[in-house]
Write a structure and sequence with these properties.
The complex is a heterodimer of chains A (136) and B (429). With 136 residues, chain A is mainly beta. Chain A is built from one helix and nine strands. The longest helix of chain A is centred in the first third of the chain and has 8 residues. Chain B is of the alpha/beta class. Classes of the chains: A mainly beta (136), B alpha/beta (429). At the A-B interface, strand 1, strand 5, strand 6 and strand 7 of A face strand 5, helix 4 and strand 6 of B.
Chain lengths: 136, 429
């Protein structure tokens, strides 16, 4: 199915490039010692841009809840309905969360609380996005 | 003419409002309520409906256009100045005053004052957003002396087609973080899923609340449902509602409508000479929050609504037991419990909202929640929250008049991430 693909911008380009390399990055403020995702022009804590860098994550997380979309506002997704919209929190910093469609999980059997590992799927030639699978 | 100073009361600790009891709500007027504007009939534009509502409000308050010295509005009725008609314009326009979008799908204070022939207006402000913020802004402006007799129109429209339908396959800007996974109203369902897991409840337990709201709304003559769909709505209807996303059914989503309301806000001093019993503002407080990461969570919804409740209590000097009528925003319905529990109205604690809904929340019972019917009972004009609070305190809510005493009313909207609390009282003290 053709699905909406991310259009990187100056701020997000390192994130999407890293996805293509199989790495999941988040921003990190070296002054506040704080992770930040999605990326922003400045650290939300200290307001400075100069201390922001990128930090590779463990790629591990937990499913903290989900919904199942039956009537999407995004027309390209209509063909996939119903589909899972789960939220994964990052193992080393549970405040940081990510989307997942849990592609290998049935819509009526989402294991909330389960450990998951990041994977990267190609949504268009040359662009991969993070996805998550239940840890084995 | 922008407001020169920051008007929101959102810096903690919020003290007692400096204009507590010195500003009053003294009139309300409504247009009829349609499902949509057809894009053709110029008697049914938001501009036309705003003028109908304004004339009704002035008559209600017993004032003439010459008494009005301020107009404060939210041109499109939406958060962050969003305009529901933006996707439709440009269109073929009409003869003046409908020769621009202003007056059709949004209404500025300037357009409104010009069409109503308000000769003595000295203050115009089109910077209102949601209805609650708008009323709070008006109360602050009157309290600050920017105007004394202020009309506050609130237009809220709907055109042909569906809201928020996203076409195309390129997700740039903020959408790059959500559309590749088809995220949307699933965000509402996700937080509700967290709520249900945390407190051991389920979606069906929302039914008594939404059904009671529809009952209340059917008793409000301006309600979309009273006008167009007066059939009874049952718990069975609710639990069988079409799913939009897991945890969010079509009956948790408010029905978009085309309507306008207008309020008269004035000083307590001027209010004494007007036709209706004044309803005094004891406080307005605001709050806007940003999720710590990609997606708003239940923890954040609870934390933010707690902050909003604490501000409302600190700003008004009231306690939960002082509130007779409580009207939390319900569009989407599955958000109302965050505010109910945060305010602790009738002693409801975190996780207890659905138990509370299962009790007696009827108009004649001890806990008349959302006596005006909210959006679920009236449609997405949102104005039932203000009009009902006002009418209950004035004792003129007719068949909706609650059985308990009605001296203090609190309403809050819209959502935990961006809300304003308004505290009304029959007494300025």
């Amino acid at each position: 199915m053709p699905r909406p693909i991310p259009v990187p911008d100056e701020l997000s380009q390192p994130f999407w490039d890293a996805c293509n390399d199989g790495r999941l990055l988040v921003q990190y403020c070296t002054y506040c010692e704080r992770r930040q995702f999605p990326p922003e022009p400045a650290c939300r804590e200290c307001g400075w841009q100069f201390h922001l860098t990128w930090l590779e994550t463990s790629g591990r997380g937990t499913i903290v809840g989900y919904s199942v979309t039956h009537d999407s506002r995004t027309i390209a997704w209509h063909a996939e309905q119903p589909y899972v919209n789960a939220i994964v929190s990052l193992e080393e910093d549970p405040v940081i969360n990510f989307h997942s469609n849990l592609p290998r999980v049935p819509v009526d059997d989402v294991p909330v609380g389960a450990k998951v590992e990041v994977d990267f799927i190609e949504v268009t030639p040359g662009q991969r996005i993070p996805e998550w699978n239940v840890a084995t | 003419m922008a407001m020169e100073t920051k008007w929101e009361r959102n810096s903690d600790p919020v003290g007692i409002w400096e204009h507590r009891g010195k500003v009053a709500l003294v009139g309300r007027g409504h247009s009829t309520t349609d499902r949509r504007w057809d894009g053709v009939n110029l008697d049914q534009t938001l501009g036309a409906y705003s003028m109908v509502a304004a004339r009704n409000a002035m008559e209600d308050a017993g004032i003439s256009p010459d008494d009005v010295d301020g107009v404060i509005t939210s041109p499109g009725g939406q958060p962050r100045h969003g305009r529901f008609g933006a996707g439709w314009a440009p269109r073929p326009y009409f003869d003046p005053p409908y020769d621009t979008e202003d007056g059709l799908t949004y209404v500025t204070a300037e357009w409104f004052a010009r069409q109503l022939g308000l000769k003595n207006v000295k203050y115009l402000n089109s910077h209102g957003e949601t209805l609650w913020n708008l009323i709070g802004l008006a109360a602050q402006a009157v309290g600050d002396g920017r105007c004394e007799v202020c009309l506050v129109p609130y237009p809220n429209g709907n055109l042909e087609g569906r809201y928020h339908q996203t076409e195309g396959l390129e997700a740039g800007g903020p959408a790059q973080w959500s559309l590749p996974w088809g995220w949307g109203l699933s965000g509402q369902g996700f937080i509700f899923d967290q709520y249900c897991r945390k407190y051991g409840t389920n979606h069906d337990r929302m039914a008594p609340f939404v059904v009671q709201e529809r009952k209340n709304g059917l008793l409000w003559p301006h309600s979309y449902y009273a006008l167009h769909e007066p059939e009874p709505f049952t718990e069975e209807d609710y639990v069988n509602g079409r799913s939009i996303a897991r945890g969010l059914s079509i009956f948790d989503c408010d029905r978009p409508v085309q309507a306008a309301a207008c309020y008269v806000v004035t000083t307590a001093e001027r209010a004494r000479d007007m036709k209706q019993k004044p309803v005094y503002f004891l406080d307005h407080t605001e709050g806007a929050f940003t999720p710590r990461s990609l997606v708003q969570t239940l923890d954040e919804s609870e934390e933010w609504s707690d902050i909003l409740a604490q501000r409302a209590y600190a700003g008004s000097g009231l306690r939960p037991d002082d509130i007779d009528l409580f009207s939390p925003y319900d569009g989407f319905a599955i958000n109302a419990q965050y505010f109910l529990e945060a305010f602790g109205w009738r002693g409801v604690k975190r996780g207890e909202a659905h138990d509370f809904y299962a009790g007696d929340i009827s108009l004649q019972g001890p806990n008349p929640l959302n006596a005006g019917g909210g959006n679920m009972g009236t449609g997405r004009m949102r104005t039932a929250f203000i009009t009902d609070s006002m009418e209950q305190l004035q004792g003129r809510a007719g068949p909706r008049q609650v059985g308990i005493k009605a001296e203090v009313a609190v309403t809050i909207g819209v959502l935990p991430g961006n809300a304003c609390s308004l505290v009304f009282s029959t007494s300025p003290d």
